[in-house]
User: Fold these one by one.
Assistant:
Number 1:
Amino acid sequence: MLVIKCPDCSHSFVWTDTMPLKGSCPTNGCSWTYDVHVELKKSVLEKTSSKNDSFRCPHCKNQIKAKWTTCDQCGCFVAGSKSFKKTHIFLYVAIILVLLSFVYRYRF
Ligand SMILES: [Zn+2]
Ligand SMILES: [Zn+2]
């Protein structure tokens, strides 16, 4: 069983084992012909490409090499599914340092 999307009329139909390997689109007035082998290849390619797509910058959706990296396109630091602007990291560090200094001041 395979779902085939017709590029001509953009209707999807289900191909089953009882149907010929090559045939025409079941939509009335559509003359597009399908080839199951070609469609199978397409669906396999789609599945593998969506796997590779798992590493994407959450900020600009640019494809990145690893889960923990900096994005080539927008320069964001990507940590898993989160992205940080480099300037924001410095801001966070500064805030943490200020908070720590407060904690030390009130302890001693
Ligand atoms: Zn069609
Ligand atoms: Zn990015």
Number 2:
Amino acid sequence: MSELLARHRHVMPSWLSLYYEEPIEVVRGSGRHVWDADGNRYLDFFGGISTTLTGHAVAEVVEAIREQAGRVIHTSTLYMVRPMIELAERIAALAPMPEAKVFFVNSGTEANDTALLLATAYTGSNQVLALRNGYHGRSVSTQAVTGNRFWSASPWTPFAVTYVPNGDSLRGPQQGLAGDKLIEACTAELRYAIDTQTSGRLACLIVEPIQGVGGLVTPPDGLFAAYQEVTADFGALLVSDEVQTGWGRTGEHFWGIEAHAVDPDVVTFAKGIGNGLGIGGVIARPDVMDSIESHSISTFGGNPLVTAGALANVEHLLSNDLQANAAARGAELFDVLGPLADRLPAVLDVRGKGLMVGIELVEPGTDVPDPARAAAVHERARAGGLLVGKGGLYDNVVRMVPPLTVTAAEVAEACAVLVAALEAVGG
Ligand SMILES: Cc1ncc(COP(=O)(O)O)c(C=O)c1O
């Protein structure tokens, strides 16, 4: 064990897990590449858990941070913060609802916590619908709406939570269904769950348009419109957790929820907007955002440093039309990886959208999850110079979420490494 690893184990919590049998210390990044402390270079297709949206050390973002840090890092929201206001205006103009208001916090967890606060304040109800296999954060409130027991750290909950189908066609009660039939079955179960498990006065339905931590489970387009038709009758707001699916990552849309042709009442974001800076936020209809009657504040939320950096990052994203690149490069990824589900008996499914790809590993020829095989692919990819992630309810899904600036040559290189790793252990 390296000296740094021993120190990590000694001082950090036991549940703070590290990737790889020999964990990596990343010391430098540039574009889509990172270097470890031993000088090894890796192609980064996990981007610090789907966070490095435009790439490492993007000149405009670095300069904006440097410049702001030299002037003032922190003032608090008791004073007007120009980059915060400018960023909020930019985001409001991109929002999937008219007249949107924006509130900044420090993480995805806090963004979802705020969304839940707004929904409960607005409706006067604590009854929340959440998706099976969803992940929304690590606080008491957000893990309480996380439908994955491996990420549910505590049984305590401030809400009465009812879990409803996530549109999974491979696992769970709707297994084997697809398209309209899947939507009908899920919606029937949603209606039955509301009738049998709630009082009929709901705060919200919270969804991830594509489940990230849950292994890229991708519901059929239109599912959440069908859900909202039901839940609106019970007063529930629709909260779309865009922490992973926002900013054009899915290629086809700027917000993942747009695939469902439904208007969310609240959107949450974090990760990619700051390209690694600690920033998250909530976008909401004005009547919802302004429904809190007490004081509320986030000391660091929207601070000059992170909002200046995030503003430069969003400008870079938009002026280079990185959503279009996500669509084009995503199509190339799926062209190569998609057919593996038919060719390799241990690959059950290749799914996702744009630059959000999951490859589910199973015992060959079955649908039995095989986390050891996924771990072996993960290690082999690293040995081949490629960083990818893992996830899924049973930790058997390899995840790829590269920066949206990824090039065709980098996609081809990553696919070659991953296909070789899958062929070696893919059954
Ligand atoms: C969809 C989603 N929501 C919320 C979160 C929590 O974000 P954070 O880790 O910034 O608190 C995550 C983190 O992975 C996520 O993927």
